[in-house]
Amino acid sequence: MIANNPNLVSWINVPENSDFPIQNIPFGIARLQDDQCFVATRIGDKVINLASLGELGFLDGLPFDSSVFKADSLNALMKSGKSGIRILRDRIAILFSKENMELQNQLEAIMESIYEAERVQMMLPVQIGDYTDFYSSKEHATNVGMMFRDPANALLPNWLWLPVGYHGRSSSIIASDVPVRRPKGQTKNEGENPVYGPSKRVDFELEMGFITFEGKPLGEQINTEEAEDYIFGLCLFNDWSARDIQQWEYVPLGPFLAKNFASSMSPWIVTLDALIPFAVEGPEQNPPVLEYLKYQGKKSYDIHLEVYLQPEHGHESRICRSNFKYMYWTMAQQLAHHTVNGCNIRCGDLMGSGTISGPTPDSYGSMLELAWKGTKPLELLDGTKRAFIHDYDTVIFRGFCENSGVRIGFGEVKSQLLPATD
Ligand code: MN
């Protein structure tokens, strides 16, 4: 892949520590001031309009029609599958590479397709069909098991044998910068009758999501070795949760209204291809997994993750540093397990990783764990304390990979919590 060459330099200036060098080439949906949406990529602080680049003829000869770039979602583009996206990323890398002298003469035409990132509004990038949420961090599952069940047997018996998951809801998945309303619902204190009202324990879940290409027909399986061919890319994903509602409602069928009031995703989908240089060995799995969950090679990814909390009139406090590589179950295993019964996945499905907690208390991926069920409130830079999220707090996730002098990032997902409605 030309686009992954670490020596490539763009003629677009890329600031130091930018998430978007020419080796990234993520995809998103953008628009200018209520104008029509278009498929975009980003280099440095510039957003590149692929629809107008296509109209200018720079994207001719690709294995799909340029009309896929005039869209309000990436779905039509994703229909071209891994091979189509690979060719497109390479074409963009060539167009914007410094080495391409021939194109320097045509710069003026290309510049019409390039905007300052701050001028552009980023939209929800994918029309999500089905949303599945996994529960694949051993540290997170152990912490929650210790708090709510038996500290001596924190992990349930199935956890080390299969990637536990549940079917979520796609209608309430929202773009970054869209505020979230504090949900209302039923909660219950021990020894009392349940009450109705605003949740008092609104929390974030530090997750990553992956977006799928079209899968196989109903009844067929995707195995671990081919699974990554069906993954388009990843985003940051805040799977908002109401812990008090969850605790009362979740028996026996699992999460429901505590989870589906909002989940926020970052605007740029970073392709799995771009992440190949950051693949690492997965964690040791003990007991050894069943045959259909075994895999070869590196299928975990070294992605640094950070969570910041910003009070209404305050500065950002960093409250968590975690890493996607802490996940016990890989995406390949999640997809193989998801389809082992013949369940089909489709173009534009979203799979959440589950909360990504690491081994140390500062790497826990939720307030529930960071403040240990409210018993150890976190102190922010302004001196105020948090056990859960307050009204008008803003929660920000950032994520990036770094090696061989290349840093590829995800930008951020950012959302403010608004008070419950009257
Ligand atoms: Mn979740």
Give the biggest beta sheet.
8 strands, mixed
CATH superfamily of the largest domain: Fumarylacetoacetase-like, C-terminal domain
- How large is the radius of gyration? 22 Å
Q: What is the total domain count?
A: 2
SSE-based structural type: alpha+beta
The tally of strands reads 26
Strand coverage percent? 25-35%
- Would you identify the regions where 5 or more consecutive residues have pLDDT less than 50? none
Shape: globular
Structural features, described:
The protein has helices at residues 50-55, 75-78, 81-95, 101-104, 107-111, 138-148, 243-249, 272-275, 331-338, 367-370, and strands spanning 28-31, 38-43, 46-49, 114-116, 121-122, 131-134, 165-167, 173-175, 180-181, 184-187, 195-198, 202-203, 206-212, 231-238, 241-242, 263-265, 270-271, 279-280, 300-301, 304-310, 317-323, 350-352, 378-379, 385-386, 394-403, 406-418. The protein has 422 residues and is α+β, with helices and mostly antiparallel strands. The chain has two domains: 2-122, Fumarylacetoacetase, N-terminal domain (SH3 type barrels), CATH 2.30.30; 131-418, Fumarylacetoacetase-like, C-terminal domain (Fumarylacetoacetate hydrolase, domain 2). The strands form seven sheets. Strands 6, 7, 8, 13, 14, 16, 17 and 22 form an eight-stranded mixed beta sheet that branches. It binds manganese (II) ion.
